[in-house]
Amino acid sequence: MTDGKEVIIQVKQLKKNFGSLEVLKGVDMEIDRGEVVVVIGPSGSGKSTFLRCLNLLEIPTDGDILFHGQSILRKEMKIDKYREKFGMVFQLFNLFENLSVLDNVTVGPRRVKKIPKEQAEKQAMELLRQVGLEDKAGAYPSQLSGGQKQRVAIARTLAMDPEVILFDEATSALDPEMVGEVLQIMRQLAQQGMTMVVVTHEMGFAREVGDRVVFMDGGYIVEQGRPKDVIANPQHQRTKDFLSKML
Ligand code: ADP
Ligand code: MG
């Protein structure tokens, strides 16, 4: 492509209702390969629901999502195969407490991708090294700090070799002194060219790492743009109000 851009996700007039509650009311978005999109907005504005629609943890009520130009909502779509392309990192880590760190990282590749144990473990050790936790391979989640747990969760996500990683407030449950170590791993991934959609309240991260900031409120995208523009010079009153509470 001449401008070096490759659109991998196109969201078109996405709507999601829960019963009579309209949560997403018509969201449009395009995400390029390697782009880091930071989604901000008040609690209840539909940020998590948006992420969950992207990987079909929620089925949209209306609108469409195209992945490499093809609708993921078409009948013949293989949902499990599609979900494998997306990693998701949650606020509360969701590690398997009864498995060691190493087994947490290898269980997906072994069970889902049928990768042999030895190969899965070799790859897992490499990923644990990348997140600075090689020496914790034999530990159990209960023996780790929150920041370490989240770094294991990121290694586990990477082990599935996703095309896109969705981060849903990945640092919101951490003690303040552990936020930085997780943001640092996320920053490394961004520098390596990973495509990321990041819901966060960390405005420093949004400004330094985000290619784009999207402000959501009431089920709509209110405004979006380059982080320095949106954060320093918001155009809409609702964005101004939200940001003034963040600082
Ligand atoms: P955010 O992540 O921006 O805080 P959410 O996407 O979690 O917002 O939620 C948006 C709205 O949708 C909230 O009012 C929430 O209560 C509602 N909601 C989210 N998930 C469900 C669900 N599974 N069933 C019913 N309501 C839901
Ligand atoms: Mg949320």
UniProtKB/TrEMBL annotation:
Keywords: Amino-acid transport, ATP-binding, Cell membrane, Membrane, Nucleotide-binding, Transport. InterPro entries: AAA+_ATPase (IPR003593), ABC_ATPase_HisP-typ (IPR030679), ABC_transporter-like_ATP-bd (IPR003439), ABC_transporter-like_CS (IPR017871), MetN_ABC_transporter-like (IPR050086), P-loop_NTPase (IPR027417). Residues 9-243 form the ABC transporter domain. One of its GO terms (cellular component) is plasma membrane. GO terms for molecular function: ABC-type amino acid transporter activity; ATP binding; ATP hydrolysis activity. The keyword Cell membrane applies. Belongs to the ABC transporter superfamily. This is Amino acid ABC transporter ATP-binding protein (PAAT family). It comes from Frisingicoccus caecimuris.
